Structure to design on (320 residues):
């Protein structure tokens, strides 16, 4: 069943997104995860505990999160599958865990804001990146938007689709719970270094295949986008992906940078601290708003390739 739900969920999410009215009335599943993660962190990550105790506490918190997410999603899946046309409900329940529409909208908004002013561009990009926006010039704003687009294509679209395909609704819900935990507590500062160890490591594991698949999808999408080079995309992946501090983020970033002739990465500031990351791709580094739109075009083509792949898999498995 999941192999048929996956392409339908992709289509539904690209069409519907997550309705604003629904967000205002009941919130978003990621917000629900966030509330549980935050509550566990305040209860378990106590300053009087040593490093080992904090790491153990983080493992316990992650286990609680995953057990809750699995039980709820499994029960809901079994319930809706027992209903007439329950597959429609299952598709709609998967929609909030994909981010195609919102990611594309948020990144395109940065390009639109840069047409107005640098200040507007900084404000727009601050909603999608963690780096200090006040330190960014126009090229920095454009690079931040494109890097986020590349990485989020993997962990916001391809990875949740992948786990939905394999394990249905519990798969995509568990993935999103892990990814949310990593984004909230999987940091290297003093507060989270030990407590967030387990979410960070598990997030790396569940994104390992999707990140590499995303690089392949971006490379294939180049065949459908003018002035995008599949050969340069894959050459950048082979040359640069392994240089990134993350075992996964370099793959989609290198693919997108190589495809479009952009030099992504490099130094940036987080909370006043400068971090110098390796360059992903090669070529133009003085990026502008129109370059964000070029990356957005490649992103849309990548989504189309993913959808075709999902449909082909469903048709192939339906004949078995």
């Amino acid at each position: 069943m999941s192999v048929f739900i996956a392409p339908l969920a992709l289509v539904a999410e690209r069409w519907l997104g997550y309705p604003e009215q629904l967000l205002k009335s009941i919130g978003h599943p990621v917000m629900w995860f966030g509330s549980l993660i935050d509550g566990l962190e305040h209860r378990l990550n106590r300053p009087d505990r040593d490093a080992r105790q904090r790491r153990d506490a983080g493992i316990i918190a992650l286990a609680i999160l995953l057990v809750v997410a699995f039980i709820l999603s499994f029960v809901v899946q079994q319930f809706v599958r027992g209903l007439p046309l329950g597959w429609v409900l299952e598709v709609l329940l998967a929609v909030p865990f994909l981010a195609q529409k919102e990611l594309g909208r948020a990144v395109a908004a940065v390009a639109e804001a840069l047409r107005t002013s640098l200040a507007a561009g900084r404000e727009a990009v601050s909603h999608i990146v963690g780096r200090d926006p006040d330190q960014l010039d126009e090229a920095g704003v454009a690079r931040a938007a494109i890097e986020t687009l590349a990485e989020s294509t993997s962990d916001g679209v391809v990875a949740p689709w992948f786990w939905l395909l394999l394990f249905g609704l519990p798969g995509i819900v568990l993935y999103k719970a892990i990814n949310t935990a990593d984004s909230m507590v999987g940091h290297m500062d003093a507060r989270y270094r030990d407590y967030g160890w387990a979410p960070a490591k598990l997030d790396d594991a569940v994104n390992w295949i999707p990140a590499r698949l995303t690089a392949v999808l971006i490379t294939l999408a180049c065949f459908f986008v003018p002035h995008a080079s599949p050969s340069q995309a894959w050459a950048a992946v082979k040359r640069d992906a392994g240089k990134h501090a993350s075992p996964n983020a370099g793959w989609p970033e290198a693919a997108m940078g190589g495809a479009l002739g952009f030099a992504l990465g490099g130094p940036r500031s987080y909370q006043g601290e400068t971090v110098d990351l390796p360059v992903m791709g090669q070529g133009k580094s003085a990026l502008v708003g129109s370059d964000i739109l070029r990356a957005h075009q490649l992103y849309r083509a990548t989504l189309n390739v993913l959808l075709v792949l999902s449909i082909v898999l469903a048709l192939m498995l339906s004949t078995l």
Observations:
- Strands lie at 264-270, 273-280.
